[in-house]
Specification:
InterPro entries: DUF3048_C, DUF3048_N, YerB-like_sf. By secondary structure, the chain is mainly beta. 6% of the residues lie in helices and 31% in strands. The strands form three sheets. Strands 1, 2, 3, 5, 6, 9, 15, 16, 17, 18, 19 and 20 form a twelve-stranded mixed sheet that branches. Strands 10, 11, 12, 13 and 14 form a five-stranded antiparallel sheet that branches.
Length: 344
C-alpha cells in the first residue's frame, strides 16, 4: 500500500542485505563498530569516456541532448541558511542525503546541460563516495571534507575539483554569510577535470507509466530535523518541492521540482566520522535491495530497488518485477531511512 507521507510507520521492511560493497574503486563501508571495519582497496581508473559508447538517449533524464557531456557532481547546502539555491533546477539528478543533526544535503548531478552558477557549495560526506562510483569517474565539486576522510577522497573514483583544487571556479556571492555563500561556475569546474567520464547506464528506464498507481497530490519525506514535500502540479506537469512546509524556490526563479521523485528506503547507520561539533555522520547504505515509492504523473507507485554493487546503478521495478519507467526529465532520489527517521 502506498502512503502519502513518510512518517516511520510503513510496514514491511525490505528483506535484503543492505551492504556497501567496495568494487571498482569504491570504498568499503565506514562504521564505528568492530564488525564494520574500514577496508582500503586500491581504486582502478574508470575507462576513458572515448571507450564507452554514447547512449542514444541520456541515461540520466531520458532526453536527447548532452549525450557525450562529462558528468559533474556538486554538493549543495539544503538548509534555510543558504536558500534559494542556484543551479539545482538544471541538474539531471538530485540526491537528497541525510547528514549530521538530522538535516539533509543535496548532491546535484549534471551532464545534459550546465547552469551558469551552482551553490551554495558545501562539504562532502562519506555516503557520496558510495553513490558516485556508478557514474564511472565523474568530476566531484565540494567545499571541503573532514580531515579523516581525505584519504578516502584520494582513493575514490572521482576527479577531486573541490574548493582546494578548483581555483577561480569558486567565488563568494549573494546575501548569506560564510559558509553559505560559496558558489561555483560549472564550466570552469570541468576545465579542472578534462578526463571526467561521460554518462552511462545507471539503471534508470524511461517510458510510459505502468498500470495502477495511486493518485496523490502531496508526499512528505521526513528526517529527524527536517522535512521535504513534493506536490503535484498538473499545470507544470512536475512535482514541486517544499522545505519544512515552505516552497523551495530556485535562485534563478520558479520553484524547484522534478518530473520523477523516487523516495528510496535505505538502511542508515552511524559512520566512524564526526563533524566539528562531535555529531556522528550518517552512513547511507545505497547498495542492496529495498522498497521505494516512485512519484510520476500525479501518482504514487510501489516499487522495489536493487543495486548489486557500487560500480553499478540502481534499478526500480514494479512489485511483479517489471521495469518502473520514469518520464523524461529531472529525477529526484530522496534517500530516507527504512523504518522511522534515524539519528546516529
Amino acid at each position: 500500500m502506498v502512503r502519502t507521507a513518510w512518517n516511520g510507520t510503513v510496514q514491511g521492511r525490505a528483506a535484503a542485505v543492505l551492504g556497501v560493497v567496495a568494487l571498482g574503486g569504491a570504498l568499503a563501508a565506514c562504521s564505528s563498530s568492530d564488525k564494520h571495519k574500514t577496508a582500503t582497496p586500491s581504486s582502478p581508473e574508470a575507462p576513458p569516456a572515448s571507450e564507452t559508447p554514447a547512449p542514444t538517449t541520456h541515461p540520466f533524464n531520458g532526453g536527447k541532448t548532452g549525450l557525450k557531456n562529462p558528468v559533474l557532481a556538486v554538493k549543495v547546502e539544503n538548509t534555510r541558511s543558504s536558500m534559494p539555491q542556484a543551479g539545482v533546477k538544471d541538474a539531471d539528478i538530485v540526491y537528497v542525503e541525510q547528514v549530521e543533526g538530522g538535516e539533509t544535503r543535496l548532491m546535484a548531478i549534471f551532464s545534459s546541460k550546465l547552469p551558469k552558477r551552482v551553490g551554495a557549495v558545501r562539504s562532502a560526506r562519506i555516503s557520496d563516495l558510495h553513490i558516485l562510483p556508478q557514474f564511472g569517474k565523474p568530476a566531484f565539486a565540494f567545499s571541503g571534507v573532514q580531515p579523516a576522510m581525505k584519504k578516502y577522497i584520494r582513493r575514490a573514483p572521482v576527479f577531486d575539483i573541490s574548493q582546494d583544487n578548483g581555483g577561480s571556479a569558486y567565488y563568494r556571492y549573494g546575501e548569506h554569510p560564510i559558509p553559505y555563500n560559496l558558489f561555483a561556475n560549472p564550466k570552469d569546474l570541468l576545465k579542472q577535470a578534462p578526463k571526467a567520464t561521460g554518462p552511462r547506464d545507471i539503471g534508470f528506464t524511461f517510458g510510459p507509466a505502468p498500470d495502477g498507481g495511486k493518485p496523490i497530490k502531496n508526499f512528505t519525506a521526513k528526517w529527524p530535523a527536517t522535512t521535504m514535500g513534493f506536490s503535484w502540479s498538473a499545470k507544470q506537469n512536475r512535482w514541486l518541492t517544499s522545505f519544512n512546509g515552505r516552497p523551495d524556490m530556485a535562485r534563478e526563479g520558479g520553484q524547484l521540482g522534478g518530473k520523477t521523485v523516487v523516495v528510496q528506503q535505505v538502511k542508515t547507520t552511524r559512520s566512524q566520522f564526526k563533524d566539528v561539533l562531535g555529531a556522528y555522520t550518517p552512513l547511507i547504505k545505497s547498495v542492496g535491495t529495498g522498497k521505494a515509492t516512485v512519484l510520476r504523473d500525479g501518482k504514487a507507485f510501489d516499487a522495489q530497488w536493487s543495486r548489486p554493487s557500487e560500480d553499478k546503478g540502481t534499478t526500480y521495478t514494479t512489485p511483479d518485477g517489471k521495469p518502473l519507467n520514469f518520464p523524461p526529465g529531472q529525477v529526484w532520489v530522496v534517500l530516507v531511512n527504512e523504518g522511522k527517521p534515524y539519528m546516529p
